[in-house]
């Protein structure tokens, strides 16, 4: 059961959240509105004529207004003034080269008045022309209607469909006994269409969670409230791990330097780790191991190769780019030839696809081979991934690399850690 609370938490944004929203607002206000409009000074104080033949094309959260420009030699820009909510008045400017102006940031799906001025190089405004726009439901409110919360390991999982791919903030709040109110525990800012993340660190007792959506203009939705009982989660003890080598597993490489499958759970995120042999010509690189206990997996973390032997291997060499986790809870599972690609839930012999995963791209935005210190640090910190809640309990894992950043026929990983319910 969930409740919807009218925007009672608007004041709860942390200082970081307020700064981020404010920064986004400044960026939006500044876009296409450089003060260069005010740089050109003219002594011609003649008032320009107003825009004419105004037409409105509404869209979600805004409108595109078209018009005919006045025949004024000293015209510099068109100015639109409008209130987006009860608190904020915006200005948008369009060059005299354009015959359209965009107005957006509206809080609701309702009529709003927009006042248009033609402005001269001497900053003289024309007589106002007022039009009514009827924006559709704003992206942040549309996204809010799709918010869903599900109990997750150690917390709550949140999904949102941001169909317009607009910049939104998904704010998660929970009870704060010290302050006596609900305060943010996660502020997730994104432009992704499909949002899926978890907030963890909670015990299995009942916790009240709330989710609301904000946008770059500071608009805030109502708050969806739910009481969640998180699922028990713990780090799977690595003391129970052991290699469970199958005939289709990839031959090991760099063994003379100490690389071996067992280094995947030795507690060290440095070299050596697991390394397969080069020159096999095989795309799929696989290793298999036993966790020593049946686990309902919640998430795992992978540490790929960073610096080693004086080289920077981040986003290159045999570091995995895409891979699949296969699992089995069969006693003594048998070997099976795994496909390069398959859907989660696919069963091959004794093995089931627990999920397909992609390594996140370099945070610098640089292409592989041109990465920098920021990218290296990102790799060395490790990448964490959720295991789908629909995945069954398993004891045995097959880690199958389908592509590497270096497009190699070998792969290497330094360490793997798994979390879940071991009960």
TrEMBL record:
Boundaries of every DUF5126 domain copy: 137-239
Every DUF5000 domain range: 265-420
Pfam families: DUF4959 (PF16323), DUF5000 (PF16391), DUF5126 (PF17166)
InterPro entries documented for this protein: DUF4959, DUF5000, DUF5126
Boundaries of every DUF4959 domain copy: 30-135
Protein's name according to its UniProt entry: DUF4959 domain-containing protein
Taxonomic source organism: Chitinophaga caeni
């Amino acid at each position: 059961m969930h409740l919807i609370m009218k925007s009672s938490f608007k004041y709860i944004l942390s200082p970081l959240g307020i700064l981020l929203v404010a920064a986004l607002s400044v960026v939006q206000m500044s876009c296409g509105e450089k003060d260069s409009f005010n740089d050109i000074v003219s002594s011609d104080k003649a008032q320009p004529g107003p825009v004419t033949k105004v037409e409105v094309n509404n869209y979600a959260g805004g409108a595109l207004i078209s018009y005919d420009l006045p025949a004024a030699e000293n015209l510099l820009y068109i100015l639109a003034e409008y209130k987006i909510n009860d608190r904020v008045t915006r200005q948008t400017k369009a060059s005299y080269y354009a015959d359209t102006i965009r107005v957006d940031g509206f809080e609701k799906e309702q009529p709003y008045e927009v006042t248009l001025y033609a402005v001269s190089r001497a900053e003289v405004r024309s007589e106002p022309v007022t039009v009514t726009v009827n924006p559709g439901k704003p992206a942040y409110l549309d996204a809010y209607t799709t918010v869903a919360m599900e109990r997750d390991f150690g917390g709550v999982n949140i999904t949102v469909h941001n169909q317009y791919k607009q910049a939104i903030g998904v704010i998660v709040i929970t009870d704060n006994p010290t302050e006596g109110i609900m305060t943010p525990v996660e502020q997730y800012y994104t432009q992704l269409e499909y949002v899926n993340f978890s907030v963890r660190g909670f015990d299995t007792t009942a916790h009240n969670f709330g989710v609301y959506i904000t946008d770059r203009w500071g608009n805030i939705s109502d708050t969806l409230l739910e009481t969640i009982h998180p699922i028990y989660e713990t780090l799977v003890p690595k003391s129970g791990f052991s290699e469970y080598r199958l005939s289709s597993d990839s031959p090991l490489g760099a063994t003379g330097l100490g690389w071996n499958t067992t280094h995947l759970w030795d507690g060290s995120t440095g070299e050596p780790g697991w390394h397969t042999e080069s020159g096999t010509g095989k795309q799929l690189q696989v290793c298999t191991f036993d966790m020593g206990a049946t686990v309902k997996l919640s998430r795992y973390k992978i540490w790929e190769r960073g610096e080693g032997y004086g080289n920077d291997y981040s986003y290159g060499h045999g570091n995995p780019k895409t891979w699949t986790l296969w699992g089995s809870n069969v006693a003594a599972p048998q070997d099976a030839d795994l496909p390069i690609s398959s859907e989660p839930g696919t069963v091959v012999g004794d093995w089931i696809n627990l999920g397909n995963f992609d390594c996140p791209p370099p945070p610098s935005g640089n292409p592989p081979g041109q990465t920098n210190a920021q990218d290296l640090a990102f790799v060395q910190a490790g990448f964490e991934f959720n295991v789908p809640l629909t995945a069954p309990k398993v004891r045995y894992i097959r880690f199958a690399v389908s592509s590497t950043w270096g497009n190699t026929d070998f792969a290497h990983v330094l360490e793997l850690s798994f979390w879940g319910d071991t009960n």
